[in-house]
Amino acid sequence: MHVKEILQKITIKKGDITKEQVDAIVNAANSHLRHGGGVALAIVKAGGVEIQRESDEIIKKIGMVPTGHAVITNAYRLPCKFVIHTVGPVYGEGNEDEKLHKAIYNSLYLAHLYNLKSIAFPAVSSGIFGFPKDRCAKILIDTAIEFLENIQTSIEKVVFCLFDDETYGYFEEYYRKLI
Ligand code: AR6
Question: Name one Pfam family in it (predicted).
Fold first, then answer.
């Protein structure tokens, strides 16, 4: 498929991801799945404490979630069906670009395994974890394109839902360069 056709499956918007009516929203989580701040806290506040409980059960079963990996829980009171919790890198820990790519790719792959059609991402790692916002935009969009280009998938729609003007600006700018 041509990149321009793939870009039609990608949407850049400003907003609160907890309101997104997609099959799955992605949470920018930490390895302990302790959803104590940022978008993670917003997701638990809006969706219910059951999201934290289910996350705790996962940690009990499999231990910490390594950076670049993703797990899935139900979404309870959120309008979406599932929450995919992915662990992006903390800026400064090394190999951050590669790890962020992996975190996004594995989220898409999990959505694909669940046969989902739509998924929304926040700007993973670019808040509390300190990853530069412009590089985050490029890596997230490039990874979505790479995935949609190479995997025959149920995923028809990838939304990047950005909370603030600055982050939205970087995503919009990079997306426009590609079309
Ligand atoms: N909708 C969309 N984006 C949001 C929302 C929202 N409701 N709220 C914040 N953002 P962050 P990280 C944006 O810090 O850098 C947590 O404590 C925010 O403006 O949530 O990966 C976790 O438990 C920023 O652009 O995630 C981890 O410990 C983006 O989401 C740690 O923070 C990501 O910011 C993860 O840090």
Answer: Macro
